[in-house]
């Protein structure tokens, strides 16, 4: 959860796609499509005082899976307290295997009013910062393209139905 808890969660809209198609011989990157908002994918502004929803992904080192499972089967009380103090609720981590690699997907809800301050409070928690994150980070492999200041790659919300 380390550096995942940053204001970087406020995902920026992706660049709009180009209407011009490249020729088959050109070396191209995948087309990025701008966010599309609607009834089941509402746009949330930074100053909104509603519940905010976050998802992220990181690779799990295969040889560290047992340790990671053990840690998360009985999360330390100090870490749980730091999560609660940061106004994080309904926090989940899921595990799956894709093409021979293990991936962790996280989901949580933020119920506070000052995300930067609340998320920073987790980094200020000594047990989380000096003990929990070093162990859990060592179990993870950052995915290429993850923001420089993050351990987990942010996921863009495409749909939300309450």
TrEMBL record:
<dbReference type="InterPro" id="IPR008000">
    <property type="entry name" value="Rham/fucose_mutarotase"/>
</dbReference>
<keyword id="KW-0732">Signal</keyword>
<dbReference type="Pfam" id="PF05336">
    <property type="entry name" value="rhaM"/>
</dbReference>
<feature type="signal peptide">
    <location>
        <begin position="1"/>
        <end position="24"/>
    </location>
</feature>
<dbReference type="InterPro" id="IPR011008">
    <property type="entry name" value="Dimeric_a/b-barrel"/>
</dbReference>
<protein>
    <submittedName>
        <fullName>L-rhamnose mutarotase</fullName>
    </submittedName>
</protein>
